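Sample entry as discussed:
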Amino acid sequence: MVIDFLKNLIFNQQKMTGRGNIQMEFAVQMHGEGCAGELKKLLADAGTVTIDPDKGSVLIETHLPWLEIHKCIEATGRRAVLTGFGGQSAVAMVDHGNEATNVRGVIRFCTLSNAADQKGAVVDGTIDGLAQNAYFQLNVHECGDISGGCSTVGDVYDTSEILSDDNGRATVRFVNERLIVSDLIGRSVVIAEPAGNQERRLSCGIIARSAGIFENYKKICACDGVTLWDERNKSIAADEERKAKGGHASL
């Protein structure tokens, strides 16, 4: 029943145009054609799906947020890790300067075209720890200097409005026609709370280059030498500990 609930939740969202569709690649724990067939059926309404059970790879072209696809896969009891996102991509781990707010999340940017200098990007991600049912600003700032927290990142380079839900989570998925992904590397993302003529900066992170489709075949995490699945299990354990303390799950 959990799977049916998730399918109804994510597939009834307002669909984007084909211009907003991107490819995502997930490493998924699966065993044989039976698992592959179940996953393909589950994701059929989400987009175009290609599954390689031998490699444990699920490739999907979709208009939906990556986190919703991830939830749907893991609701089957299988572990999943996002290993590739679109073409030229960038990512910001938004978890700095948030000591007083605990606002944190991940924001990804992906090109709409293979042309490096062409404008247009899909912005996709999730921010947790926000006030419920409120509007916030997702700002790209001109530089990535977070030596002084979120106050030293320079002027706003681009801004978009996002909305949190009943749980204080903002699920982000839209097309920004102004951005060039290659121009974002080294800048920063700031989540801000509008307050009159001023903005309260809640959390920030540097935008870095990230893996596109078929660019990440990592099986061992270079940071600590554990396998991809051990790393995922560590993340789940940390989520459970955080929930027990009344915090938010990681992404």
